[in-house]
Amino acid sequence: MSSTPAKHYRQKMENLEAKIHIPKKRDGGYYVYIYDSSSHKIIQKYYKGINVDPDPEERLYAAQDLQKALMIKLKSGWIPNVGKDLIKPTTITIAFNEAIQRLDGKVSKNTDQFQNLGTRRKVWII
User: Fold this and answer.
1) Measured between alpha carbons, how far is 54 from 4 in angstroms, rounded to an integer?
2) Helices in the chain by DSSP H: which ranges?
3) Cα–Cα dist 12/19, whole Å
4) What span, in angstroms and rounded, lies between the C-alpha atoms of 103 and 112?
5) With a cut of 70, which residues of the chain have pLDDT below it?
6) pTM
């Protein structure tokens, strides 16, 4: 039995952690990264103003603040980079036809907002 997409994303979300990279050199760059513990991969890195202050201790405080914010987002169900996986390349014509199909069940055939052009396509009248 295959798992549903929602179950897959819920499992994926549980495997995600926000971690801080602390450089070995004092003047190195700090960053916070999203780590997938199931695949042992870094999903995304965030620098967002962490390295603005030259003091390493202040950089660490900034990284900890960002880590807390990312953990809150992760706990609320946010999954980074999911949009890239779900969006498939398409053309305007295909996107238009999909939009019409989605609206087709929600809009009455008798409404004057749609006009049948004698083909399978309908045109939105503005």
Assistant:
1) 47
2) 5-14, 56-75, 82-86, 92-104
3) 16
4) 14
5) 1-13, 81-89, 105-126
6) 0.56
